[in-house]
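RECORD TYPE: inverse folding
INPUT: structure tokens
STRUCTURE:
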């Protein structure tokens, strides 16, 4: 038997059972009245009368449901459709009572006043006409309740589908924005390095230019290996940084001294790919580049209060009153990447040091760097963090 047929049979069985339960319930009222008023009519007459009437109503319920679907009451046509269902309910009531009268008159139920078909019909019209109309509208109301509940569920499912789709689009947008910011940093650094090489060539410092080109090649190779990553382990970021600083030391020779210190627990922490490079580049340009004497850059990393604290300090002239705290596109871009990746969970501060120079402090939520396969999960987590701002 096809599954749809089985479902229809189960639905009809449930309807029939519900009507029988209603009939038994209503029969108790008549039986109570019989015993209270000492009515000599046998009790089973009341039972048969109610069971026959409710069985007929159960048989006619599928027709009511069909009419409810075929002539649905909507906002645009509610008045006309209500009038139509009023007519249907009267028809249903009379039809049910006619068939009920034909059956009960043959069964000999209530022989004192229901001896003929016409007499039985008159009695049932008086006793059951209004109740049948009410039953029609109750069935219709139950149908509409289930219909609107199903529509509500469908709207919930559609809203959830749209929400998931929007979340996926948001994650893709976040990833695209982060990639765009990252791609802005790489040409920025590349152009600065190529300009430095051009200066070395013009100064006829061939060996230094060749060494710088070789270091640049190594750096680009490392960067391209992680071109799709938004976060890398700190140890990996420090490898890029050491190559970059080696390039800068070719330019500045003995004028640039660098000290890097990182706690062992911080080396596996996740940091933005190419996140430290623009900070150190600013320290070189604005700290060492503005001074004629030798300078020192200190880079430190430590785990502090559940966060990763990265600090870049130079001993240059520091920030003047006219300097912007962003100090150019590099730091502004880095600050925007932090906002996209971590929301309010990260910060980037630029200030003058106590003993001169400038100090840039980057604070990140501490977590171990994820593998490349988890990049999409990281992007969604970043989008959620940004929502909590």
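DESIGNED SEQUENCE:
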């Amino acid at each position: 038997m096809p599954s749809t047929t089985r479902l229809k049979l189960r639905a009809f069985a449930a309807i029939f059972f519900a009507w029988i339960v209603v009939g038994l319930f209503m029969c108790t009222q008549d039986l109570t009245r019989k015993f209270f008023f000492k009515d000599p009519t046998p009790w089973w007459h009341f039972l048969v009368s109610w069971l026959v009437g409710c069985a007929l109503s159960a048989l006619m319920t599928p027709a009511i449901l069909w009419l409810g679907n075929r002539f649905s009451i909507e906002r645009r046509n509610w008045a006309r459709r209500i009038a139509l269902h009023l007519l249907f309910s009267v028809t249903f009531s009379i039809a049910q009572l006619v068939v009920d009268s034909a059956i009960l008159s043959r069964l000999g139920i209530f022989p004192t006043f229901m001896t003929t078909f016409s007499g039985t019909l008159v009695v049932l019209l008086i006793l059951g006409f209004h109740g049948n109309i009410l039953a029609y509208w109750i069935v219709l109301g139950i149908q509409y309740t289930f219909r609107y509940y199903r529509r509500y569920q469908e709207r919930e499912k559609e809203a959830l589908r749209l929400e998931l789709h929007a979340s996926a689009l948001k994650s893709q947008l976040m990833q695209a924005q982060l990639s765009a910011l990252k791609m802005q940093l790489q040409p920025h650094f590349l152009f600065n390095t190529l300009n430095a090489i051009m200066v070395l060539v013009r100064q006829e410092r061939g060996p230094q230019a060749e060494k710088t080109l070789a270091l640049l090649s190594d750096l680009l190779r490392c960067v391209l290996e992680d071109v799709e990553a938004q976060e890398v382990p700190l140890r990996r970021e420090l490898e890029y940084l050491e190559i970059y600083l080696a390039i800068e030391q070719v330019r500045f020779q003995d004028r640039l001294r660098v000290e890097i210190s990182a706690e062992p627990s911080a080396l596996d922490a996740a940091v933005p790919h190419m996140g430290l490079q623009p900070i150190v580049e600013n320290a070189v340009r604005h700290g060492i580049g503005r001074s004629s004497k030798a300078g020192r850059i200190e880079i430190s990393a430590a785990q502090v209060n559940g966060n990763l604290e990265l600090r870049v300090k130079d001993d240059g002239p520091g920030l003047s009153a006219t300097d912007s705290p962003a100090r150019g596109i590099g730091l502004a871009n880095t600050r925007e990447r932090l906002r996209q990746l971590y929301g309010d969970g990260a910060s980037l501060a630029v200030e003058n040091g106590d003993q001169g120079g400038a100090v840039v402090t980057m604070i990140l939520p501490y977590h171990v760097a994820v593998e490349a396969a988890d990049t999409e999960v990281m992007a969604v987590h970043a989008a959620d963090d940004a929502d909590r701002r």
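NOTES: The two ends are 58 Å apart (CA to CA).
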